[in-house]
Amino acid sequence: MLPTLNLTGDIVLSEHFSHRLGRVRPGDLVLLRLPVDPAKIAVKRIVAMEGDRVTFFDSNASDLLQTLVVPKGHVWIQGDNLYASRDSRHFGPVPYGLIQGRAFLRNCSSWKMQMIQGYNDVLHYYFLACLLKPVIMCRIRNCNNITIVEDI
After folding, report:
1. Rounded Cα–Cα distance for residues 6 and 106 (Å)
2. pLDDT on residue 12
3. Going from the N-terminus, what domains does the chain have, and what CATH number goes with each?
4. Which pTM does this prediction carry?
5. Virtual CA dihedral for 39, 45, 50, 52, nearest 10 degrees?
6. Distance from CA of residue 38 to its chain's centroid?
């Protein structure tokens, strides 16, 4: 997820209710279970929602351009570092049920908090998250071009 998240050391705050309310949209950074390994949780950006048309280069043949419509109940996710990311281009659209939360704040190694771009009304969501379910803090690490999330 470079340049948004560092490969190691970043701590991300995420809330776990907006995806249940259908409040995720393209541009949001989400935590999701990987379809290829459900034991791992990764951080990726939503690029398209159900019904949206996506055009991408096939991961098997870099010169082959494909277009598809994201099926109902799925999202299309990609990492910010397109050349070193395993995402929907490799395993296809992701079922909405695999989304675990939405990241809204990150702590870089200098202990400086930064809002993640594209997230509005942070205080509103933070207070709702505290009321409905605790905000989860996660540590970021990189493993085989997948940004892995570990609870702390």
Report:
1. 10
2. 78
3. 11-151 (2.10.109.10)
4. 0.75
5. -150
6. 15
